[in-house]
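Why predict the complex rather than its parts? Because the way molecules touch one another can change local conformation, and only a joint prediction can capture that. The input here totals 352 residues.
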Amino acid sequence: MIDGFTYSALPMRVVFGAGSLAELPAEVSALGLSRVLVLCGPRQEDTAKQIASSLGDRAVGILPEATMHVPAATAARAVALATSLGADGCVAVGGGSSIGLGKAVAKELGLPVVAVPTTYAGSEMTPVWGLTSDGVKRTGRDPRVLPVSVVYDPALTVSMPASLSVTSGFNAIAHAVEGLYAPDASPIVSLMAAEGARSLVSALPGVVADGSDMTARTAASYGAWLCGAVLGATTMSLHHKLCHALGGTLGLPHAETHTVVLPHVLAFNAPFAPAAVTALSRAFDTSDPARYLWDLADSLNAPGSLCELGMSFADIGEIADAVVATPYANPRPVTRDIVASLLRAAWEGALT
Ligand code: NAD
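Output of the joint prediction:
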């Protein structure tokens, strides 16, 4: 049965496929940009140089300083550099950290961002920005930060080690899972979520077996695109709230934390999210999607517990407090005790 819904399409343009980085100069031309600042993390500097060289004198600088959670000081440096260079747009190449830096510039200066994602995190498909100062990460939605064009070249993901490929893939699947039971879910977003999650779970074993398998890499990037679009279109629930608190408060690594926490939250929410369970069961060809994700992560040697990620057992109470401090949507009612017990299970690495 289809309930009433509201669906607002985001104005996204996607250029997809192995080798599509060659299309980037045409994308920049189509946008009328002539003074582009290329933003990346330290590890993407070679790709950034390649991009700058393909743009010729339309690239006016490279800032290889993107780091996790967009520190306000880094954002301020990027804004100052874009201003001093007279930049009229940014190309952000890398994972969520690089794209987050591009969003910070867009938020401040209104410059268009062309995103070239190299992980599966999905930030390129969302109007959500994040900025961290004094250890506190603020996030918000602003249509100006949504990249105007996204070039998905799966060849750029080949350099991701197997471990990051798996955890980044699970990060994307988490967007799909929570999009399926979101308060603002809609039929078209649910189709994207189920297809995105399906494509990723079927691709990840191939990616791990052979990181340069372009068929598997392309299927994984395709899934990441769809899951990112779901993240951009819906409101996330308990899982993202938990991961945000664990990353923001304790500095736990983003993709790995998503991977550990997801099966626990899905198992908890499943009895209150029957349509999501049906969609995921069909997508994964299983009767128990939470157990399926747990077993898949285990078979791909992903981290299995928050303890393994360096969280101290004593921190559970602080995170539980943070997660219930402000209300948010979740299909199943949440109390502090429930959050603490989910965290204990995730800390131990035991799926009940
Ligand atoms: P990341 O961008 O920090 O990348 C993780 C590490 O992998 C970095 O060291 C990076 O240099 C490296 N890396 C990236 N691509 C690589 C490649 N192809 N080969 C080898 N190494 C590579 O991590 P992420 O998981 O992509 O993004 C996480 C960040 O993005 C977090 O800060 C998160 O909050 C944010 N995020 C934001 C949104 C949003 O909508 N605003 C969505 C998802 C994630």
